[in-house]
Design brief:
Blueprint (H helix, E strand, L loop, with lengths): L3 E9 L6 H19 L1 E9 L6 H7 L7 E6 L5 H11 L5 E4 L11 H10 L4 E5 L3 H20 L11 E8 H8 L8 H7 L4 E5 L14 H15 L2 H30 L7 H33 L7 E7 L1 H7 L1
Bound molecules: uridine-5'-diphosphate and magnesium ion (MG).
The site of magnesium ion has 5 residues, from loops.
Length: 326
Amino acid sequence: MTTKTLCIIIPVYNEAEGLPDLLDRLGAIADSLADEFALIVDYIVIDDGSRDGSFALLKEYDFGARATRLLRFSRNFGKEAALSAGIDAAQYSDAAVLMDADLQHPPEMIADFVRIWLTEDIDSVYAYKPSRLRSEGPMKAALSKLFFWVINHDLRYDIPPGAGDFRLVNQRFMNALRSLPESDRFMKGLYGWVGFRQTGLPLEPPPRLRGKSNYNPLQLLLVTLDAITSFTTMPLRLMALSGVVIAAVSAAYGIYIVIQYFFFPAVPTGIVSVLALIAFFGGVQMMFLGLLGEYVGKSVLEAKKRPIYILSDDISRKENTIADRG
Ligand code: UDP
Ligand code: MG
């Protein structure tokens, strides 16, 4: 049996505060993984245009004998781009683990992922949040339920609610992800879209230890909208459908008015209700036009075929071990 290689991919954006902690903890885990499963473990760390010295810290950090590739983007391209860069760079690994840099993805869990990968015929093992309701409150839970309903309307694939980016992916799973040409990458959706055999392990994510989340509630809403429009055209269908429903209701109301006019002419009809209806449908039209605009804008951006990210630095530590393998 040849020794298998596992690559740990970490996107980093302004994480200088917590990085040493993470790397120290991860180093110990990587050593024990190498021992327990006879694996070669290496890292790919992607600095997504940090402004807080994360990259300098990464360059200084003593990774010991572990092969490490440090990539740096020319600016901030977003987590999805960083993950894509990591997957692109991991082409010689038998599997990769994708994990956040903020210790919300406990490195200890990687051993559970690896055990399933090596013993079962599974292409991707992911962590999922078992109880959204408790940890996030009813509002966010309802939104996320709606979100997963919208993106999962196509029964040919399954995007498990609560599944995040913390996951192990094997080589053919990564090949499938690399083969997707779109520059607009909603990774959580793409994991489901590519198919294969996948299994989830429950994980209640611990709070961020240091630094702060890169997303506030408004950003989260925008990201959610972005995710929906980049992944499915279902909202366009809902628009058309609501058009049909509104037209049907208006027609019925029209008939009712005509009947009223001829048979009960004494009943007054008010200007207020007319104004309210005009305002209402004006609003609905604007909303739908905006949504349509989202899709048109996305097609324009996709049509440009810009690269997903631009690298400014690419530093390999222990290049020989990576080259030997390839
Ligand atoms: N991240 C990134 N680029 C960004 C935003 C975030 O690479 O533009 C990284 C970040 O450093 C972290 C991970 O993505 O490793 C998750 O980010 P964060 O913890 O802010 O998100 P949350 O956990 O709140 O979803
Ligand atoms: Mg986080």
